[in-house]
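Appendix B. Chain record.
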Amino acid sequence: MRYISGLKTLAKDFYHYNFSGMNELFSYDDTHEDNIEIFMKDNSFLEIPKVIWMYWDDASIPPYISLMIDKIRNDNKDHDLVVLNKNNLVSYIEDLKFSSDKYIPIANKSDIIRLELLKRYGGIWIDSSVILTKPISWVHDINKDKKVDLIGYYRDVSTKDRMYPIVESWFLCSQKNNLFINEWLDVLSPLKEMGAKEYFNMIKSRPDYEVILQGIHKPDYLLVYLAQQIAMRKINFNLFSKRSESSAFLYQENESWNSSAIARDLCIKKSPITLPPVIKLTNDNRRGIEKLIKLKLVKKDSIIGKLMSGAL
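Structure tokens predicted for this chain:
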């Protein structure tokens, strides 16, 4: 009965967006950006290598995720794009081992993997669930101008102290062997042997836990952010971070994180004139999109429709 009810809701929304005159998604406005720039030390310019790292644990990637990856590849031909999985990872990080006796979620393993890759090779880490709507050259422009250790996106709702913003791990840009990335990885690395529960309990027992916690939601899962906050307080760093809610999570914020509404916005509403340069999809967003794709309710002029046709 729940499935039938869900279908009725989707059908109702489909016709609502088609005939109500409210079928165009609003445009991104860069004047609403609220970047955080932190400069604690003098940096010489070091180039961020033109390599994009992505990871999907299973070698079999959903078709629309493959289209997102292909778009990034096609729009950034001056970059090498490396898509890793659990089978080919050893070719790049041959000595990485996780305890077989402790529970470590794939997400936590992936966080260690991205920091290992950035430490060893540098470059740009992008989660496979990210849609890039413009070339990544803006990252290199920022680095050349600002000479920073890290370029990324911070979560405003989680950040209580703007000197130590909660930088999201799904988009990270850095040079090879960067001191901040190295420190972040060093703080997180005990997780490989301790497992997620023991590692979290260790962090939670720290006298400064409430300080580093800030507004992090589900800290026992987002261990990489706790490790980041510890690293930020151990060494000086330079950072350029864009506000997630102003761009990457713009449409999620507009729908108060209602996954069904977000999926409909991306799959049914007409794509706006100006898109955010980055659109991040959460697991819930992906499930909603997959449902609409399966039901063949994706409109050709929507964001996902244009992605699927190669017109985005």
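Further analysis of this model is presented in Appendix C.
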